[in-house]
Design a protein that fits this description.
With 135 residues, the protein is of the alpha/beta class. It has helices spanning 30-46, 64-76, 78-84, 95-107, 120-134, and strands at residues 2-5, 9-15, 18-23, 50-55, 85-91, 114-117. The chain has a 6-stranded mixed β-sheet with strand order 1-2-3-4-5-6, with helices on both faces.
């Protein structure tokens, strides 16, 4: 079920408490980055525990201001994110996607289990295992 969509990303709840964030091939505006932050905050506020997969194959450049903005938000919300997040999978085969993740992780390294892969099925299998371990 589609949860939210704008020019920069689409969020779909692919099964209960598992959200897929598909990053579109555009350079986001400040407003679109803030919308992403707002959607993540909304999901975390409404759910006990969640898992996420980020589809980053089509990701375009994310300027340093946005990487810093996201990294600082992750740092500020680290306790809430760590408490509510089961696991996050990042699916990208692009050098640019990996560079964006590295830039964000320089500001704030994830404090939850995460996996990066080029294969969505591998990421989904790993997330399913993490979610099963929650039960």
């Amino acid at each position: 079920m589609e949860f939210f969509k704008n020019r920069f990303f689409t969020v779909t709840e692919i099964k209960p408490n598992l959200f897929e964030y598909e990053i579109h091939g555009v350079e986001p505006t400040d407003q679109e980055v803030n919308e992403w932050i707002g959607i993540v905050e909304k999901i975390l506020a409404e759910r006990q525990r969640v898992a996420s997969i980020y589809q980053m194959a089509n990701m375009k450049f994310l300027k340093s201001d946005h990487r810093i903005m996201i990294g600082n938000w992750l740092k500020k919300e680290s306790v809430n994110i760590r408490t509510k997040t089961i696991a996050v999978g990042y699916c990208t085969d692009s050098v640019l996607g990996k560079m964006v993740l590295s830039g964000i992780f320089l500001v704030q390294k994830p404090e939850f289990p995460y996996m990066t892969s080029t294969n969505k099925e591998d990421v989904l299998k790993w997330i399913d295992e993490q979610m099963q371990n929650e039960k």
